[in-house]
Amino acid sequence: MKMLIKDFAELTGVTVRTLHYYDKIGLLKPSFIDTHNGYRFYDEKALERMQEILFYRELDFSLKSISEILSYQNYNKQDIIQEQKHLLILKKQRLEKIISALEAIEQKGEIQMKNVFDNAQLEIAKNDFKDEVKQRWGNTSAYKEYQVKSKDIQNNVYADFDSIFGEFADYMKEGFSPSDNDVQTLVGKLQNFITTNFYTCTNEILSGLGQMYVCDERFKNNIDKHGKGTSRFVSGAIKIFCEN
Question: What's the whole-number mean pLDDT along residues 152-172?
Fold first, then answer.
């Protein structure tokens, strides 16, 4: 089996842009690139790795954590599958509690808060899983190679992160308003980038970041290196985004 990137993206439910990014950071590379036309192809082995990535993404693992786990060699896939299933069951149970709380409000007007939004059990299980996998299968040459490469990956991630603020600065210099559609789209891009590479960035978290970008001198100065007032422009755009 050999699929073009477009077909592979459609089958796996991710975007072509995401696949290009996964290739860039070394998480999932094409199985073959045609040197004549540059077309990217993916095979069954790539499909299997993509499925593993998607399982971990469903559990909100960062791309860095996924890269680390997948760098281990010779791990017992059956054990991994069972543990992934266990983690997904914990996530399902948490979602069921939240749904039940919504139904209580909808049907009876009752507010239920106790243990509804508690995510501690899942987070502890995820951390235990990462520690166990590393302890059992992390002492390999492949993982040592990953540790070296991960520094480059991390540098690339932060460079891409910084470039987003450069885009905000460009909009500001061109006279755009924080409420303009293009700027608001860029806020969504920022939120998705943080979720993909660092942690799940809810609107609440994003709103807090927007305030920190102008209140914390370290963040403010780093963002304003793209142009004086960029941090204030970004903060204003985030505020509008989170209020809508």
Answer: 84
